[in-house]
Design goal:
Layout: H1 3-16, E1 18-20, H2 24-31, E2 34-38, H3 39-43, E3 49-55, H4 61-72, H5 78-91, E4 97-103, E5 107-112, E6 115-120, H6 128-139, E7 143-149, E8 152-160, H7 167-176, E9 180-184, H8 189-199, E10 203-205, H9 213-222, E11 227-231, H10 237-242, E12 245-249, H11 254-259, E13 262-264, H12 270-286
Helix pairs in contact: 1-12, 2-12, 4-5, 7-12
Bound molecules: adenosine-5'-diphosphate and magnesium ion.
Family: Belongs to the cation transport ATPase (P-type) (TC 3.A.3) family. Type IB subfamily.
Subcellular location: Cell membrane
Organism: Streptomyces fimbriatus
């Protein structure tokens, strides 16, 4: 390898907002044939908002919002932030939380005003009106968050995330580079499908628990695919590390930057295609 070509590559990379961890990284970009895209925060903005509140017959909407909002206030998850902010906006000051437990990939549980409250995907049985509300939300691409306490589901909150304006264009660019895009998410299959359709991805792997995301990457590798993974590090740092090429969105967490081979300083997904194009071109110059 000629050091000059590498320096040109990394210099141009910095201009484009791409930081390369080491020269050996470039080599892996040549063989990559699959790009796994994390959904929340990568394909979508991850800035979610509470859009709709449905309550079960006989349940009190204000109480659903107070208890859910109080509990979610203690979580950093984008869904939680949307619920807490939306609840506070609608009902004002939220009650204090007596105990709190995060259930990764599912939601939160804890004690509020003497009730054992659960928020997220933690109820098996829903009354028919809530099941319908949940399906309605999900078929529109929104996440259905079930709220209940003392073992009974009492409401569904519809939380919406927006697809980044540039994501569909980014997927077209990745395809033009001969790469197969795959959407990976812990979210519900219906929501994942709606987002995939909006950006032009046809391979969807949904309802994957955070700790299983790296295994999904390993499974694709076992099928003989060479995998690049793009993520923001919220739940996907391990998958970024396992991938043949980890692309960490610089707008994500420190964990992502640590785990990635390339850091994409621009939050816009088109930079992933830029990174692969630039690496390939730099390699061609070296050879
Ligand atoms: P993603 O893979 O899209 O980043 P996660 O694996 O973090 O998502 O979560 C998967 C799903 O679990 C979310 O879409 C949501 O339905 C539910 N969930 C996770 N955390 C929470 C929370 N704090 N409150 C409500 N629901 C949650
Ligand atoms: Mg994410």
């Amino acid at each position: 390898a000629t050091p000059t070509a590498l320096m040109v590559g990394t210099g141009r990379g910095a201009q484009l907002g791409i930081l390369i961890k080491g020269p050996e990284v470039l080599e892996s970009t040549r063989r990559v044939d699959t790009v796994v895209l994390d959904k929340t925060g990568t394909v979508t903005t991850g800035r979610m908002t509470l859009q709709e509140v449905y309550v079960a017959e006989g349940a009190d909407e204000k109480q659903v919002l107070r208890l859910a909002g109080a509990l979610e206030h203690a979580s950093e998850h984008p869904v939680a932030r949307a619920v807490a902010a939306g609840a506070e906006e609608r009902v004002g000051t939220l009650p204090a939380v007596e105990s709190f437990e995060n259930v990764p990939g599912r939601g939160v549980r804890g004690r509020v005003e003497g009730h054992e409250v659960a928020v997220g995907r933690l109820f098996e049985d829903l009354p028919p009106e809530l099941a319908r509300a949940g399906q309605e939300a999900e078929s529109g691409g929104r996440t259905a968050v079930v709220v209940g306490w003392d073992g009974v589901a009492r409401g569904v909150l519809a939380v919406a995330d927006a697809v980044k304006e540039t994501s569909a264009e980014a997927v077209r660019e990745l395809r033009a580079l001969g790469l197969a895009p795959v959407l990976l998410t812990g979210d519900n299959r219906t929501v994942a499908q709606a987002v995939a359709e909006a950006v032009g991805v046809d391979e969807v792997i949904a309802e994957v628990l955070p700790e299983d995301k790296a295994d999904v990457v390993r499974r694709l590798q076992a099928e003989g695919r060479v995998v690049a993974m793009v993520g923001d590090g919220v739940n996907d740092a391990a998958a970024l590390a396992v991938a043949d090429l980890g692309l960490a969105l610089g707008t994500g967490t420190d964990a992502a930057i640590e785990a990635g081979d390339l850091t994409l300083v621009r939050g816009d997904l088109r930079v992933a295609a830029d990174a692969i194009r630039l690496s390939r071109r730099t390699l061609a110059t070296i050879k």
